[in-house]
């Protein structure tokens, strides 16, 4: 199961840089114009998820809930044995009790999940999460600079930011719903991304010890070799974690669907960025360091 | 041979313990509200009157009174915690009449001084003489009387009213209530008090006296609670989510284990054993530390297994690589263990740094998630690095693993040294 053929990952990365930059720009445009499709977690309002024992139609539900005394117009989504009712106003406890009674008249076995939120809470969680990520980047820079060197740290952080941003961008482009668990998913992706990148960097560091790399070509060969040596591990690991996330996506509960989807996308990009973004970026930075040495020896 | 024996004993004992304890452990894992049904409300507390201050003590008191009220309503294990400087989180599982509970909870704590009305049975007091807002804010203090007994000094706003009450109740008992709960033995009115100041004595310990003073201060300045966030999950919906997610987790884990065994043969079986041990230990820690398992928690849990697999894949790939370069099996395993150890440690420590920062700066769900991640990584280092490496070394030294084929490496791939 080894690649007999030698791939030039560094060369290929040029195309992937274009791809990643294009995706980032597209993401920025979408984020700036359309924003994210926030769930009720980020919007003031109430979200009522009803699990039913039989299927109900819009014609049955609409009249039943129209006279419970809630002024704002709900948006209702009918699913297989479930109904989602969303209000842009926060339901008072007696209103939500009245709503439950009204739906129970249609289906006595209905089970409810009601989420009410003041936007401040979710925003605060998101804000804290962003701060946490930025501060942890400092932690990564410190640790990787000590154990490796600062160029690795920079490469790792660019890859990590890239992965997190791409997931946010994809959720924006495809108008997927962003809820509180999405924040957790992005944080997990960051964890994996850094894990994945460090393993490849570790191999580059190890190969650097053997032999002196004098030219850019030497370094390029070294990066290609290191990526190739860890490629099977990268693929296997990405595959196993992907399986776990994919099972959650297909079979897991409704409430973690979006979480799993974000994870699946993030994992694929995490594996991709370690190979095609982080390592070539390190090479790019290393080249700048090497150049003055080369020019002085040329004299 | 001695090593092999200890290997066999370790594996058999661990297997036995795991098989024997797992069902009991699973029952003991505390489930979050999103899994077992119930509701959670986050309150924002602010003083009832504008300009009043919100102290740590009054927040704590309010939380305690919320818990007492929830208990009084007959709910099971209400959980009330204060967060930050002005928030209280309330979690109640399995409530039938949610609207009623929510309404009750929101009412401010009512402090009343009562006397026995006509027709009251012994030790019951129904005539309300003074309410919390009659007292001067933050004026209740613990002092000591001449006999060095703790007493509580209080001040009321309306001196005339207080004089009238004390005159009428001279020699009678005046009971202190918080909501409908009687606090301590009712003190007796000993004098007509005209200056609006009084002291309550009743053989209190210093702690009891302090608590009573705090309660009176709180009653004088009750906190207004507004619902910031609430989540309510029907019990059946929660159960369904749990079942689905666990099923997904089991299938995912099974595929991972099969993959590992097919890929790495006997070392794959060892890796699988380490993974199962890792999962079992994680559940054990959940039970011992009394962590609450929520849906994102389960997801982190299952995905963490995928991450733990990485440690095994790195090790085994490295060993294969060493073998292909022509090293003997024993030196391949030794070199593979050594180099992969450093790789995995660096990768894991970096991830722990990220998680630790999340734990320190995150709130709510982020904090819980980060904690599980840290615990999981530390466990993974113990089981998937130390333990898995030890098992592999023992089997190689005992001569059970002696062919490159057992590692999934073809003879033809091995270069001569």
From TrEMBL, chain A:
Keywords: Cell membrane, Membrane, Protein transport, Translocation, Transmembrane, Transmembrane helix, Transport. GO terms for biological process: intracellular protein transmembrane transport; protein targeting; protein transport by the Sec complex. Its main location: membrane. Pfam families: Sec_GG, SecD_SecF_C. It is found in: Cell membrane. GO terms for molecular function: protein-transporting ATPase activity. The keyword Isomerase does not apply. One of its GO terms (cellular component) is plasma membrane. Part of the Sec protein translocase complex. Interacts with the SecYEG preprotein conducting channel. SecDF uses the proton motive force (PMF) to complete protein translocation after the ATP-dependent function of SecA. HAMAP family: SecF_B. This is Protein-export membrane protein SecF. The gene is secF.
TrEMBL record, chain B:
The keyword Lipid metabolism does not apply. It comes from the Bacteria. Gene3D superfamilies: 3.30.70.3220, Multidrug efflux transporter AcrB transmembrane domain. Residues 121-222 form the SecDF P1 head subdomain domain. Forms a complex with SecF. Part of the essential Sec protein translocation apparatus which comprises SecA, SecYEG and auxiliary proteins SecDF. Other proteins may also be involved. NCBIfam families: 2A0604s01, secD. It is found in: Cell membrane. Residues 228-396 form the Protein export membrane protein SecD/SecF C-terminal domain. InterPro entries: SecD, SecD/SecF_arch_bac, SecD_1st, SecD_SecF_C, SecD_SecF_C_bact, SecDF_P1_head. GO terms for cellular component: plasma membrane. GO terms for biological process: intracellular protein transmembrane transport; protein targeting; protein transport by the Sec complex. The chain crosses the membrane at residues 246-264, 269-289, 295-314, 344-363, 369-396. One of its GO terms (molecular function) is protein-transporting ATPase activity. Belongs to the SecD/SecF family. SecD subfamily. The gene is secD. It holds the Pfam family SecDF_P1_head. Keywords: Cell membrane, Membrane, Protein transport, Translocation, Transmembrane, Transmembrane helix, Transport. The keyword Transmembrane applies. It is a multi-pass membrane protein. Part of the Sec protein translocase complex. Interacts with the SecYEG preprotein conducting channel. SecDF uses the proton motive force (PMF) to complete protein translocation after the ATP-dependent function of SecA. Residues 60-116 form the Protein translocase subunit SecDF P1 domain. This is Protein translocase subunit SecD.
């Amino acid at each position: 199961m080894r690649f007999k053929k030698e791939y030039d990952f560094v060369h290929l990365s040029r195309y992937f840089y274009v791809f990643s930059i294009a995706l980032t720009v597209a993401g920025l445009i979408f984020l700036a114009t359309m924003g994210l499709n926030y769930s009720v977690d980020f919007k003031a309002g109430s979200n009522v998820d009803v699990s039913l024992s039989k299927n109900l139609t819009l014609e049955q539900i609409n009249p039943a809930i129209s006279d419970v005394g809630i002024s704002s117009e709900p948006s209702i989504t009918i699913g297989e044995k479930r109904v989602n009712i969303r209000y842009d106003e926060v339901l008072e406890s007696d209103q939500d009790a009245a709503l439950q009674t009204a739906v129970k008249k249609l289906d006595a076995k209905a089970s409810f999940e009601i989420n009410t939120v003041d936007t401040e809470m979710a925003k605060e969680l998101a804000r804290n999460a962003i701060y946490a990520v930025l501060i942890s980047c400092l932690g990564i820079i410190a640790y990787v600079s000590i154990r490796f060197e600062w160029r690795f740290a920079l490469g790792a952080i660019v890859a990590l930011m890239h992965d997190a941003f791409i997931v946010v961008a994809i959720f924006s482009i495809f108008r997927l719903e962003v809820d509180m668990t999405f924040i957790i998913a992005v944080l997990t992706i960051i964890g994996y991304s850094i894990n994945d990148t460090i393993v490849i960097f570790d191999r580059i560091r190890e190969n650097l010890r053997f032999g002196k790399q004098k030219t850019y070509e030497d370094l390029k060969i070294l990066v290609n070799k290191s990526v190739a040596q860890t490629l099977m591990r990268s693929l296997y690991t990405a595959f196993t974690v992907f399986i776990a996330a994919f099972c959650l996506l297909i079979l897991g509960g409704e409430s973690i669907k979006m979480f799993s989807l974000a994870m699946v996308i993030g994992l694929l990009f995490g594996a991709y960025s370690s190979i095609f973004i982080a390592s070539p970026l390190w090479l790019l930075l290393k080249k700048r360091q090497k150049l003055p040495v080369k020019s002085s020896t040329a004299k | 041979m001695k090593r092999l024996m200890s290997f066999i004993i370790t594996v058999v004992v661990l297997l036995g313990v795991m098989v024997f304890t797992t069902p009991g452990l699973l029952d003991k894992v505390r489930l979050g509200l999103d899994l077992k049904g119930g509701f959670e409300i986050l309150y924002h507390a602010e003083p009832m009157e504008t300009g009043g201050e919100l102290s740590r003590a009054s927040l704590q008191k309010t939380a305690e009174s919320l818990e007492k009220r929830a208990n009084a309503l007959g709910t099971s294990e209400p959980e009330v915690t204060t967060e930050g400087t002005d928030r209280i989180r309330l979690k109640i599982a399995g409530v039938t009449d949610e609207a009623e509970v929510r309404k009750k909870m929101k009412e401010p704590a009512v402090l009343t001084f009562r006397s026995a009305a006509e027709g009251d049975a012994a030790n019951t007091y129904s005539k309300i003489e003074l309410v919390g807002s009659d007292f001067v804010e933050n004026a209740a203090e613990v002092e000591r009387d001449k006999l060095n007994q703790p007493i509580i000094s209080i001040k009321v706003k309306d001196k005339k009213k207080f004089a009238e009450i004390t005159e009428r109740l001279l020699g009678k008992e005046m009971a202190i209530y918080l909501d409908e709960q009687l606090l301590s033995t009712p003190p007796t009115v000993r004098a007509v008090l005209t200056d609006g100041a009084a002291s309550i004595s009743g053989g209190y310990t210093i702690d009891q006296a302090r608590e009573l003073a705090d309660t009176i201060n709180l009653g004088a300045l009750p906190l207004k609670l507004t619902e910031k966030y609430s989540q309510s999950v029907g019990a059946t919906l929660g159960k369904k989510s749990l079942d689905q997610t666990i099923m997904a987790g089991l299938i995912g884990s099974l595929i991972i284990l099969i993959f590992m065994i097919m890929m790495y043969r006997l070392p794959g079986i060892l890796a699988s054993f380490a993974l199962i041990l890792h999962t079992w230990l994680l559940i054990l820690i959940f039970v011992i530390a009394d962590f609450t398992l929520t849906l994102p928690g389960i997801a982190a849990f299952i995905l963490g297994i995928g991450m733990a697999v990485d440690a095994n894949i790195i090790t085994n790939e490295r060993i294969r690589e060493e073998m292909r370069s022509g090293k003997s099996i024993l030196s391949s395993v030794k070199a593979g263990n050594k180099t992969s150890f450093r790789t995995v440690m660096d990768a894991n420590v970096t991830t722990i740094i990220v998680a630790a920062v999340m734990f320190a700066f995150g709130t709510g769900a982020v904090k819980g998630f980060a904690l599980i991640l840290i615990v999981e990584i530390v466990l993974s280092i113990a089981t998937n690095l130390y333990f898995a490496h030890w098992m592999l070394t023992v089997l190689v030294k005992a001569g059970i693993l002696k062919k490159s084929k057992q590692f999934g490496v073809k003879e033809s791939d091995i270069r001569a040294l």
